Amino acid sequence: MKDFYIIANLKMNKSIVESKIYLNLLKENIQNFNNKIVICPSSISLFYFANEIQGMKLGIQDIDHREQGQGTGSISASQVKDICEFAIVGHSERRQTFFENNKTISEKLQMLWKNNMTPIFCIGENQEVRNKGFKAIEKHINKQLRDSLFEDSKWENLLVAYEPIWAIGTGLSASPEQASEVISLIHETVKEISGGIDVPILYGGSVNEENHLDFQNEEKINGLLIGSACLDPITFSKIINNS
Ligand code: PGA
To answer: CA-to-CA distance for 109 and 157, rounded, in angstroms?
Structure first.
């Protein structure tokens, strides 16, 4: 059976004390898991999670595109590589709020690979593009992939997350069919760029306790990137236990 990823993006939530309570409750309520569970807490809690996470994997929510040095407030891959296996890159909240573009994102991917980390590379269209129809979505997704990935990318260390912006944090998820349609396109495009290599493609955007299995049952979807529904450790433990 292929690996299925369940990734929690805790975003800008939880103090250090709250993070400790969160992780304790999560561990108490998880019965077992067959999937790869990755938790991406706020950077302030990474070190605590690293020591206590037990069997789950750790990811950072973003990294700087440079190696080290003059980057006030930033964290580089080389600083966290000892404790983090994964890093979210290109999340739409960073593209929008911090004006990150495909070129910077490509540099971040390179930096992660250089430090033996695995990017969770996020792409997805906004509502305006979705309204224009599938051809426009295809064009948008193609550009995001082709501007950041190249034939010599480190394909064995890559997860791509399809996160339609209109579905993030809105409670309005894509339907499993809508997600699968774009995810199939991503699989095909990745294979075209890589010369035949496929990578796991995840779905993210208002995944919750009620709908997560609908996505998991779709053949082309290899994992889930979950925001809001992870914030409550009991809810998140149910998703882990049921998946
Ligand atoms: P959401 O967030 O589950 O709250 O929609 C997902 C994400 O932004 O990764």
So the answer is: 10
Q: What does pTM read for this prediction? A: 0.97
The tens digit of pLDDT for each residue in 113-122 reads 999 999 999 9
| Residue identifier of the C-alpha nearest atom 6 of ligand 1 | 227
Residue-wise pLDDT for 90-111, tens only, equals: 999 999 999 999 999 999 999 9
Decide: 173 in ligand 1 pocket, CB within 6 A: no
- Tell me if 227 sits within 8 A of 16, measured CB to CB: no
Q: 169 CB under 6 A from ligand 1?
A: yes
Distance CA(103)–CA(121), nearest Å, equals: 13
Contact 155, 123 (CB under 8 A): no
For residue 70, report the distance from its CA to the centre of ligand 1, in Å. Answer: 31
Q: What is the DSSP string of 114-148?
A: HTT-EEEEEE---HHHHHH-HHHHHHHHHHHHHHH
Ordered structural domains, the chain, with CATH: 5-242 (3.20.20.70)
